[in-house]
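R.M. (postdoc): so does anyone remember the format we settled on? I'll just put the structure tokens first.
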């Protein structure tokens, strides 16, 4: 492709490629250091039960406070982390950190109910030999209740590793850990796997929620996913709620849980106790 653009284009392409490669190598070295040197952060986005309006849990979302480049979002470094395999370490770090954090909040706010923790887990874990060991290792080390943990994986994971994934997910499920399918509706789903694998929750992708009131197709898709989930006895989370009208429509459709900027953006850990105190005023003022 570069060649077709002629000599000058070819040259520029090469220089760009070189710069890109150099940047990448630096970022990779940086990322190796980041997990060790405390540059990663976790934000916590509340997930609300539609029926009660109360927080039932949080999704842990990683950030990287880079000493030179500033605050980096997953879009800036997750691909790199996956390509280099560093994602295994990043995800494990996030999991450990979030397990400890949730327990701190539960101690701080003894009147509040216990919360679920949703953690994103890259598909890379499922081609690594020790996903079960590393998961149970973190749970043991932090004494976090396995049934309060939800692992968010994407549809692709179920398809890519179809020969071994059933057994792996089964063992994880036996630990008590729940499984969520993230970005549901965007993958090449074969709906059959929802029955063959021990899935607990579907998270409807933000892109459908975005368009659900404007596009009849998206609206219908959201409705269909919720109905199907009910029939299969799965829970449904709608992600990316930004408008009150979306919330109302999801209420009409009997969606179980919602998550999005309308309810709350991802929060710094220091902001969570106040958020929870507002959410559970009675429990906490008595406690
Ligand atoms: P996701 O798991 O689907 O997470 C939801 C993303 O949507 C988050 O972006 C969140 O900040 C954003 N979001 C939430 N509510 C709204 C809303 O109302 N409107 C809009 N426009 N966006 C909203 P974030 O934090 O940038 O993360 C992006 C993706 O990076 C995540 O998508 C997840 O796939 C991945 N990711 C994040 N943290 C981790 C991690 O610790 N490990 C791994 N493997 N992946 C992670
Ligand atoms: Mg997620
Ligand atoms: Mg998602
Ligand atoms: Mg995603």
């Amino acid at each position: 492709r570069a060649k077709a653009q002629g000599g000058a284009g070819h040259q520029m392409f090469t220089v760009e490629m070189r710069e890109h490669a150099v940047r990448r190598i630096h970022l990779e070295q940086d990322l190796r250091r980041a997990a060790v040197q405390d540059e990663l952060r976790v934000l916590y986005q509340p997930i609300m039960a539609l029926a009660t309006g109360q927080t039932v849990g949080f999704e842990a979302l990683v950030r990287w406070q880079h000493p030179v480049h500033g605050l980096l979002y997953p879009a800036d470094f997750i691909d790199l982390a996956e390509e280099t395999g560093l994602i295994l370490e990043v995800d494990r770090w996030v999991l450990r950190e979030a397990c400890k954090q949730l327990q701190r909040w539960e101690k701080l706010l003894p009147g509040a109910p216990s919360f679920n923790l949703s953690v994103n887990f890259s598909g890379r874990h499922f081609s690594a030999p020790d996903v079960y060991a590393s998961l149970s290792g973190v749970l043991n080390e932090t004494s976090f209740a396995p049934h309060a943990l939800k692992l968010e994986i994407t549809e692709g994971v179920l398809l890519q590793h179809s020969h071994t994934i059933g057994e792996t997910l089964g063992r994880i499920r036996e630990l008590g850990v729940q499984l969520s399918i993230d970005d549901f509706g965007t993958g090449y789903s074969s709906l059959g796997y929802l029955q063959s694998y021990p899935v607990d929750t579907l998270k409807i992708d933000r892109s459908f929620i975005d368009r659900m009131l404007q596009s009849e197709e998206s609206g219908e898709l959201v409705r269909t996913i919720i109905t199907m989930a009910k029939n299969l006895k799965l829970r449904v989370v709608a992600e990316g709620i930004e408008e009150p009208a979306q919330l109302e429509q999801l209420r009409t459709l009997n969606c179980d849980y919602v998550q999005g900027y309308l309810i709350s953006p991802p929060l710094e850990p220091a902001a969570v106790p106040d958020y929870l105190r507002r959410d559970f005023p009675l429990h906490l003022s008595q406690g």
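R.M.: ...and that's the designed sequence above, right after the tokens. Also worth knowing: The longest helix spans residues 6-36. The radius of gyration is 21 Å.
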